[in-house]
Protein 1
Amino acid sequence: MRMGTYIARRLLLTIPVLIGVMTITFVLVSGVPPTQRYLSYCGPPPLHGGQAAQSAYLAHCRRYLGLNQPITTQWAIYMYNTFTFQWGRVGNATAAVSAMPPAQGQPVTTVLGWLLPYTVELALLALVIILLVALPLGRLAAVYRNRPLDQVARVMSFSGFAIPSFLLGSLALIAMVLVIQHFNLAGCSGAFEEVWGSWPAAGCMPGSTPFNNNYPPWLIRGIVSTPTGFPTIDAAIHGQWLIAADTLLRMIVPALIIAYGSIAVLLRFVRNSMLEVMNLDFVRTARAKGVSEAAVVRRHAGRNSLNVTVTILGLTFAFFIGGFPIIEEVFHLNGVGRILALSAQQPYDFGLIFGTTILFTFLVVGANIVVDIVYALLDPRVRLG
C-alpha cells in the first residue's frame, strides 16, 4: 500500500470517531435546560421590549437550535453547526468574561482562535521536555538495569503516576512564591504577579511591562498578537526580547508539571522496549562483531525501540492535553484550557464548554493521525500489511 493511500485511509477512519464524540456530546448537551443553552448560543435576552421581545427571542433561539424539530433533526442541525464551526457566542455572564473582558459576546471560534496559540506553545514546550527526558533516561535505565540510575528512574516514574498534576502544580506555585518573597527578586511588587498570568507579563523582569495596558498595535486588546498569534514568537519578531523571555519562562514550570506525569508513562515503555530489543539476535550479533556498546544502544537497539515509543507518545499527548484546564487555571495562563475551566463555573457557558471539548477532540485525533503516519514511516510493515 502506498503512503498516500495509507494516509487517506487513516483520515477516513477519523470521521466515525469524530461523529461518535459529537453524538455523545449531543446527548449530554440535550440534558441541559433550554434556557441555559439560549444564553450560550443566542446571547442574552433583550432588556427592553416587554413580553413581545422575550417571546420573539425565545422563538428565535428555538429555531436556531432546532428545538422545535424532532430529535433526529436536532442531531443533524447540531452536526452541521459543529462541522461549520458555528459554536455559539461567549455568554455575557460567564466567569470567563470577568477574566477576559474582550471575550464578551464574541463567537466561540474567535475566542478559541485567540487562545489556541498560548495552549499550542505550552503543549510544544511540554512535548519537548518529555522527549528530552523520557527517551534518554528510559534508554539509560535499560542499559544500567537494576543499578542506581534505574532505581532513580523507577522512583520518578512511580511518583509521576501517583502525584496528580493539580497538586504538583499548586506545590510548585507555592514554592515559587516563597522563593520570590524570600529573595525579593528584581524588586517585585507582588510575588503572585510574577508567577501568575500569561502574556503580556505582569511580572518583574526589566522591560516586561512597558505598556501599562496601552498596548502597541501588534498586541490587540492584550490577548491577540500579530502576525503569528503566538506570543513568544511575536514578541521576538517585534524586538521585545525581554517580553519573549518572560513569556517563555512563565511557561517552563507549567510545562514541567504537565510533562512530569507523561514522562512517567513514556519512560517505562521506553525502558521495557529497550530491554526487549537488546535481547534480540541482531543485537547480540552486533556485539559479537565487536561493535561498541554505545553504537549498539544508539544505532541498533535505540532505533528499533522507537516504534513502541511513537505509539505511546500519541496516547501520552491525549493524556497531557487533558491536564491543561487544571494547570492553566492554577498558573492563570490565558489558554484554551483555562477558559474551559472558567466556563465550567457558574453561571455555565455551554458554548465555550462545547467549543473547547470539540477543539481538544480535534487536537487529539489529529495528533493520533500524525503518530500513525510517523509509525508507518518507521516501519513499512504497518502500511504494507
Protein 2
Amino acid sequence: MKKFKNIVVITGTYKTREGQEKKRYQNIGSVFLDDNDNLKIKMDSMPLVDGGWNGWANCYDLEEKANKQEDRHDDIPF
C-alpha cells in the first residue's frame, strides 16, 4: 500500500503577534491506496477540539520532505 493523503482536522484557533487569527491543525491519520486502487483509512488519534469534534476531517496531499540535500560543487582544488 502507498500513502495517498493525510487526514487533518481543525482543532482550534490562535492569534499571531500581529493579532491575525489562524487555524490550528492536527494530523489524525492517513489514507492509503492499495494495489487494487482501493482507498484504506488508518486513524492514528481522535482529535480533541474546543467545543467537541463535529466529525468532519479534511484530506490533504502529502508534502514533500525537505530532507533533500543540495549538491555542492566547489571549484577549489585540494
Protein 3
Amino acid sequence: MSASTVTRCRTVFPNPLPSALPSPVPTELGIDSTLQDLQLSDFQLDANCHAQQVTQAFEHNPLLPGVILTESGQFWGAISQRRFWERMSRPYSLALFQGRAIRFLYKLVQTELLCLSGTTSVIEAVQLSLQRSPELLYEPLVVQLGSQTYRLLDAHHLLVAQSKIHQMTLALLRQSSQQLEVANLDLQRLASLDALTKVANRRHFNEYLASVWQQAAQFQSSLSIILCDVDFFKRYNDTYGHLAGDDCLQQIAQQLCATVKHSTCLVARYGGEEFAVVLPQTDLSVARELAEAIRCQIAQLAIPHATSSLSERVTLSLGVATAVPTVHSRLEALVDAADRALYAAKSQGRNCVSIFEPVPTDLLMPEQG
C-alpha cells in the first residue's frame, strides 16, 4: 500500500493483531521518524459486537482515539471516540444502539479514512492529515504496520510528534550554526596566524595596520610601528640548522608578545627573520622605550649565537617610526619610515634601536601624478 494512499473505510484489510494498550509517547524523535515510532492504539472489536462494549471501553480509557472494526477477521472500518460520543449523545441514540451491533452505528458515522503505511514519515503524514477536510482534521489515522497488522494514530499525537521534531530540528540547527561559527572563527584565527611563530602573519599585519590607520586619522592620534630584524640570522641557520633557527624565531615571538602586553597592540611576523609591532595611540618616545625594552629582553633570552659578529647571544636591530595620519595620508609612508630606521640601526652596528623622527605630513600625502 502506498504511504500516501487515502482509502475509503469499506476497503478490506487483513486481520489485526490482538488488542493492546497505546504505547508510551516516544521521547526520542528525529527528522526521519516514521508513524511506527509513535503512540499507536490497538483497540479492536468485531463489527457484530454490541455498541455497549465500545461504550465501556471508551469510558474506561478516554485516551483511546477510536475502535478498529473487523468482520470475519478482516479490517472493516474504524470509528473515532469523538464521533462515537457525538452520535451516542443524541436523543434516543443510547437506547437505540446500545443493544445492537456496532455495525449499525458505523453506517451512520463512517467517514473517509486516511490509511498510511507505518513507514510513512511523520512530516509527510502531518501534511496529508492537514489536507483533509476540516471536519476530518481530528479523526485518527489508520496505520498499516504489516500485511495483517493495523493500528490507530490519534491526530493530536501526530501533531505533538511533529512539534517535537520541529523543536529538535531547530535545536540541531542552532547547534550546527554555533559549531559553524566557532569553526569559522577558528579558520579566521588560523588564517591570520603565522604557522611557525603563532603570532600574526603579514596579511593580518597589513589588515590591522590599515584599520588602526583609519582610526588614527579620524581621531588625529599617534600611530607607531617597530620593525625588528634578527641579527646575522643566516649565519645562525648555517651554524645550528634550520630546526634550531625555527626554535629561535619561536622564542623571539613569544618574548615579543610577553613584552608588548597592551591588547590593542599587534605583534606580527613581517617576513623571514623580521617581526613588526603595531602600536596604536603611541607617540615616538613611548615606542622608542618599548623597542629598547624588546631589545634587552631578547638579549636576556641568552640564545647562543657563536658566529655572530656582535655577541655570543642572539640580538635584534629595531627601527621605530611614528605618524599622526590624516584621511588623505598614505600608511605606506609610515612603514617605509620604519624600514629606513631599521636600515639605519643595521648601518650603526646592529643590536640597537634607531628612530625615524615623526613622519612629516608632506611625506604622508599621496604622490602627485
